[in-house]
Amino acid sequence: MKKIIILALGAISLGSCKKSFEKMNINPNESPAATPELLFSGAAVNLSNTRVGGDLYVSIALAAQTVASGGNAGWGAGDVYDISPYSTGNIWRTNYVNSAANLKQAIDFAQQSTPVRYGAMGQCQVLLAETMYETTMMYGDVPYSEAWNKEISYPHFDGQEAVLNSLLALLDEAIVNLKNENAGQTTIVYEDYFYAGNSTKWLTLANSLKFRILMTMVDKDPSKATALADLMTNDEMMKSAADNFTFKFGTSTGNRNLKFEILNQYAGGSNAFFFANKTVLDPMLAQNDPRIPHYFTKGATATDFVGVGTELPGDFDANATISMELYAADAPEYLMTYQELLFMQAEAAARNLIPGGLATAEAKYQEALKEACLLYGVSSVDAGTFAGSKTLSASTAVKEIHLQQWIDLMDRPLEAFNTWRRSGTKGNEVPSLTVPPGAPAGNLIYRLLWPTDNEILPNINAPKGVFHYYDQLWFDL
Hints:
Blueprint: H1 37-52, H2 54-63, E1 67-68, H3 85-112, H4 118-139, H5 160-178, H6 199-217, H7 225-234, E2 245-247, H8 258-267, E3 275-276, H9 278-286, H10 292-295, E4 296-297, E5 321-322, E6 333-336, H11 338-350, H12 357-375, H13 380-388, H14 397-408, H15 413-421, H16 452-456
Antiparallel strand pairs: 1-3, 2-6, 4-5
Helix pairs in contact: 1-3, 1-4, 2-3, 3-4, 4-5, 4-6, 5-6, 6-7, 11-12, 11-14, 12-13, 12-14, 14-15
């Protein structure tokens, strides 16, 4: 059975860290004047590149059905759930070693500084929370409380609920540090590729990430609704697209987005692999969505945009492909956006998890749609017209919000996968996905499996038993 991902991260792009490349040969753990800067920048680069690299992006985009492979015409026919252990191992190793371990050390350096660098501590804690949130949302139970401890060779795996609660506590610590009176003067600046050391933006991000985690948990733990309402009352979350959690790429070698590098290396810089999936394109066509020409390119001889079903044959003459706007060398990677937060707030209001009811839900929903259109190049007039025409009814509001968030997250497949899994009970998610031809056990994917060689075999305290890609994680009803 063909492994769909064979691209390792060894050839990873350095993204925006080029400006610090001259410092990369320094071992920050052995430097006589150890600072958190290089550790933080390395973690940021590795996390961001992993998200757009072949191991994660292609695996999740095809498995979660935000993108279509086109069968033999594109990426290749085969079982989309037979994800290579090299891919799962690369993701695991990068998140734990290259990102999280560096951030833990950076936090220690910031805390040991004189004076204490509260701003840098907060930045590292927020990025660590994001790293481990992404990790647990792929793998479920993961080492956390015993991880990165030199005295523990075989860390136990914490349950996902415990991990998510720990991340909320970590973000609370970050918020306290980012509110410290010296936070603004003690941040990482030059090596902060997200916000250039702006402690206020890191503070709004911390609160926004808390909202995301709470929305992930609230179905299994309804008591989290209180914390959601508190965040709305405190009003310290993202306020505009200027607050987006963005990693910027460039057009020079070593700075380019890895989605482009895959196409550059294997297809001469054009998209010869990835088609528009009908799960995204068809509902956009039904609503005359102005983002369509920014997301997709028509088939070479086609007069209309025509999608491809998951794992079905594609035709470059007839079917739409993913636009090179999304796969450009300098296409930014969004780890969290303002419109993502707005969609979640709209859902929370529609479900009465926060005050405001349907009126607040509709206002947030329309604002989210407008921001989503603007982000991908739609004119302000067209974005406003499209968003303003969308209303919500009590009976279908939550479904419509989930569908539009799915469309918005098409090019961020991990977030799309996360939202889809929590959008309904098993078999009732939004949108309704089809089990692809040839899928073993006739099931959709609900998780990644832990890497056998990297973790399960060497760690005597790793989970024992038989696990499947269709097993649901704790948060998933």
